[in-house]
Inverse folding.
């Protein structure tokens, strides 16, 4: 008899579900997923987001139903994006204590005190030009005014945590953002609130559907000046390093699926710092659209992609598949 090689034996053994589970390296849990939701001011109905099937702009008046559904599905954490009624050049509605996110937070804290709520801290949904801060002219080129933006972001972050946000996620990659926000929170007595920094955010085509959803697509110029070149990997370390030094509690890589190498390398470089990956709207839509055409098995594809992101090194994933994953897991365990 010829000897059986361990790899061959393992492949056979894996067909037994118990052994398959015993030796499985990566397991995707619902607790690894953060559900992203968009909230709008006005009353009326939930507006389907045409570019993101299954997702809606949820009016405050319907937020209760939405939160009850989320909690009922066993989802443990959400990230909120606000779509304000009025926008201006400085995004001043972002720090209005009676603003969209602030009102939503008060509601959620009452309805679902155990749901963990993260809030996006950025101005692009609040500025009429769609950039992540007030604009200025830098040597004949349109750019975000760094210091003014930091001031406004501080007010926004503070107003979120006062309303009940449990973690702030500044997404603009503005220079010095993390240290300024950390100091603002500490000085105001919120030193326990962690900062999830969008440390490594690429200038990606994968944000397209989100831009339509959040009505935050840049109307003039683009965000190339403050987001990273997709061709660069090493640069990600400098960005992450800087955020760590400035006091970020959790790092993030965005997008996720097309940047698995970056996720892996950041985790290797900072093994003791939790890492989040953002599976973006564009990445979500690619699976969704292909499955709607009958070209791909949606459940298998989505679970495979999310598991790959975790396998690469992400501890948790902000994404648009959380509700579906919750339903699939319920079906599988029924
Ligand atoms: Zn932004």
């Amino acid at each position: 008899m010829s000897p059986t090689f361990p790899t061959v034996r393992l492949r056979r053994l894996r067909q037994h579900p118990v052994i398959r589970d015993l030796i499985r390296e990566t397991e995707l849990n619902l607790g690894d997923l953060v559900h992203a939701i968009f909230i709008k001011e006005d009353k009326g109905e939930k507006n389907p987001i045409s570019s993101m099937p299954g997702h809606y702009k949820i009016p405050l008046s319907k937020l209760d139903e939405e939160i009850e559904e989320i909690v009922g599905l066993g989802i443990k954490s959400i990230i909120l994006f606000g779509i304000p009624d009025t926008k201006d050049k400085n995004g001043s509605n972002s720090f209005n204590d009676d603003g969209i996110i602030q009102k939503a937070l008060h509601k959620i804290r009452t309805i679902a005190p155990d749901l963990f709520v993260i809030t996006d801290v950025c101005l692009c949904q609040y500025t009429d030009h769609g950039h992540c801060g007030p604009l200025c002219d830098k040597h004949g080129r349109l750019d975000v005014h760094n210091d003014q933006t930091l001031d406004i972001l501080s007010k926004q972050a503070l107003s979120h945590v006062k309303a009940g946000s449990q973690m702030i996620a500044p997404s603009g990659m503005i220079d010095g953002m993390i240290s300024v926000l950390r100091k603002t929170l500490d000085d105001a007595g919120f030193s326990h609130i962690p900062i999830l920094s969008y440390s490594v955010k690429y200038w990606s085509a994968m944000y397209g559907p989100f831009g339509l959803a959040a009505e935050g697509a840049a109307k003039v110029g683009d965000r190339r000046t403050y987001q990273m070149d997709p061709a660069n990997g090493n640069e990600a370390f400098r960005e992450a390093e800087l955020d760590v030094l400035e006091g970020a509690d959790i790092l993030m890589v965005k997008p996720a699926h097309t940047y698995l190498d970056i996720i892996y390398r950041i985790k290797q470089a900072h093994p003791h710092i939790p890492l989040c990956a953002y599976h973006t709207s564009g990445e979500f839509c690619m699976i969704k659209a292909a499955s709607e055409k009958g070209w791909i098995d949606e459940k298998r594809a989505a679970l495979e992609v999310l598991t790959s992101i975790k396998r690469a090194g992400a501890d948790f994933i902000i994404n648009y598949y959380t509700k579906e994953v919750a339903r699939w897991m319920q079906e599988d365990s029924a």
About this structure: The pocket of zinc ion is lined by residues 122, 124, 132, 171-172 (CB under 6 Å). The first helix runs from residue 6 to 13. The chain has a mean pLDDT of 92. The domain at 31-333 is CATH 3.20.20.70 (TIM Barrel).
